[in-house]
DNA sequence: AAGCTTTGACCTATA
DNA sequence: TTATAGGTCAAAGCT
């Protein structure tokens, strides 16, 4: 698939099917097995592409992230967590999902899941990007997605409040720290933004312990805030869907255990954070 | 008036 | 043990 397809698809946005499995992975902590591992995670199968044309799945939902997959090509197996991308192979897309080994303590991992999305495009080709997002659910899987796959505001259907920003040494870009605004939800995300305003990396920490709110609009003043307005707009049109992100269509995941760790310093960091 | 962003200071983990 | 980097807090200002 070409990048042009992405844009086209983004434009046509057929995110209609996300809702379907919203509860499945919508950020909830999945049921856990006796060992403390999420069931679907415990049953984690190999990276087998599964084709389920009749059922669209929002990867973003699954991962609580802004990444959207649309329709027939972006189906994920609820039970396996595998991403069906028969139509494509990893080489077709400039981005990929990176899996990381499960932390020794699965139970703790549940409490502190970390997902990372970074802009591969940056390294691979100069295509305009405005956002990168995605994360895997239940494991330290690293997902790399072309920035143009996701919206700039990284709206993933949840309410986020920025609580800090910092320039980190390892990156030229400042990081913004966000917390989920849902009461008692400890989910956080770190967004690294380039000087041009483009998001180059998103790191999700912890999972949501609540369903994705259909509306995050604020009863009062919110309407005046650009941020709130944006949020409201997104939700109004998407109804609990991550519209911005949902607009991608064909996505190819290279779902494989990555030993890119050596070349991806972020992964090490993630592992550490995921502990 | 409520909620959000900004931003410097503070805290904590790691080397 | 100390220095440094990363992450969080919280006051102030803004929408």
Automatic annotation (TrEMBL):
<keyword id="KW-0238">DNA-binding</keyword>
<dbReference type="GO" id="GO:0043565">
    <property type="term" value="F:sequence-specific DNA binding"/>
</dbReference>
<comment type="similarity">
    <text>Belongs to the WRKY group I family.</text>
</comment>
<feature type="compositionally biased region" description="Acidic residues">
    <location>
        <begin position="254"/>
        <end position="263"/>
    </location>
</feature>
<feature type="domain" description="WRKY">
    <location>
        <begin position="155"/>
        <end position="213"/>
    </location>
</feature>
<feature type="region of interest" description="Disordered">
    <location>
        <begin position="205"/>
        <end position="265"/>
    </location>
</feature>
<keyword id="KW-0479">Metal-binding</keyword>
<keyword id="KW-0804">Transcription</keyword>
<protein>
    <recommendedName>
        <fullName>WRKY domain-containing protein</fullName>
    </recommendedName>
</protein>
<dbReference type="GO" id="GO:0005634">
    <property type="term" value="C:nucleus"/>
</dbReference>
<keyword id="KW-0862">Zinc</keyword>
<dbReference type="GO" id="GO:0046872">
    <property type="term" value="F:metal ion binding"/>
</dbReference>
<keyword id="KW-0677">Repeat</keyword>
<feature type="compositionally biased region" description="Polar residues">
    <location>
        <begin position="218"/>
        <end position="228"/>
    </location>
</feature>
<keyword id="KW-0539">Nucleus</keyword>
<dbReference type="GO" id="GO:0003700">
    <property type="term" value="F:DNA-binding transcription factor activity"/>
</dbReference>
<keyword id="KW-0805">Transcription regulation</keyword>
